[in-house]
């Protein structure tokens, strides 16, 4: 008995040590001061920012630009709510953050990209870097300049060596994952001719479906984001020429037209989408979905049926990507959101797998043209390797 307990303790200690190693060294913040003169500023007018961990060895001319997530603000009130937080002001951002997962500088934790120049772009505009309103309301002091921020940050990185890039990836998580979809071709166009450019979207494939009350909640919300931020002119014209601009914020209406190669990492039961698109608070006034949204194991048979239907709609929405050699896909059946930034889900001994392949290996094989990867998991709860999220009841649901 004592030996068994000792063995368990040693195993847990080994896991803790591995995770500590994976956490990485904190990377200092860089403020793009030159962007201010271009009007490329955060919601509060402060300069945009990013964290850069320089490449080394064979990766010195390879660049991975990863965009931070953080939801959206859809009107003046919600944008004011972000203005004096890290999601609206670089003044409120941590001066250093640890890199892990796809941003790790350790070969054992990130074998294909560990020695690249790895950048995390901080998110402070509230519209996935699509907005551009010239006027600034003197009463609110809000700047809607996300598209300018994106260009200013890329120009700064080009001047710091990305102009010599041999390989480049634009990636992101959540709202950043959506930005990596919306800006994929723009990013490619800004890189030198001859650079091998691809994109990776993590948890950025938000779908347009009715909520549990039958309302088009997310469609209305995204339309308000686009209207408030003046995003229409910065969305793909191939979409806006045919559909209302608000719809072109959804990947299902525009991603098939992306010319640059792109890989989608997404949970079919994306926990943010379940909480905020399928069963938002406005559609669940009595809180019957509250416990289910915190932990999928708490869901009733009826709720699970609704989630299975959501998966069917998700697979239909992303179906246009299947069979296309330019698109990669890792769609697991986990209750999760953002899986490339976390070491536990990117590459560890117990990370989620599809076809015996981790996310890190699937993305790496796809990028280097070793093996194409387009895999869709079987329905929940079939995958025992899933890391299903369990949420703190006090967590702000929209800040993902």
From TrEMBL:
Molecular function terms, GO-annotated: pectin acetylesterase activity
EC number(s)?
A: 3.1.1.-
GO BP annotations of the record are: cell wall organization
Q: Which UniProt keywords apply?
A: Cell wall, Cell wall biogenesis/degradation, Hydrolase, Secreted, Signal
Q: Which domain of life is it from?
A: Eukaryota
Q: What is this enzyme's class at the first EC digit?
A: hydrolase
For the keyword Signal, the answer is yes
Transmembrane regions: none
Which GO CC terms are listed, alphabetically?
plant-type cell wall
Q: Which InterPro entries match?
A: PAE/NOTUM (IPR004963)
Q: Does the keyword Signal apply?
A: yes
Where does the UniProt annotation place the signal sequence? 1-22
| Subcellular location(s) of the protein | Secreted, Cell wall
Q: Name one Pfam family in it.
A: PAE
As for what it does, the entry says: Hydrolyzes acetyl esters in homogalacturonan regions of pectin. In type I primary cell wall, galacturonic acid residues of pectin can be acetylated at the O-2 and O-3 positions. Decreasing the degree of acetylation of pectin gels in vitro alters their physical properties.
Similarity comment text for this entry? Belongs to the pectinacetylesterase family.
- Its protein name is Pectin acetylesterase
Q: Which source organism?
A: Prunus avium (Cherry)
Lineage in the entry? Eukaryota, Viridiplantae, Streptophyta, Embryophyta, Tracheophyta
Gene that this polypeptide is encoded by: LOC110755356
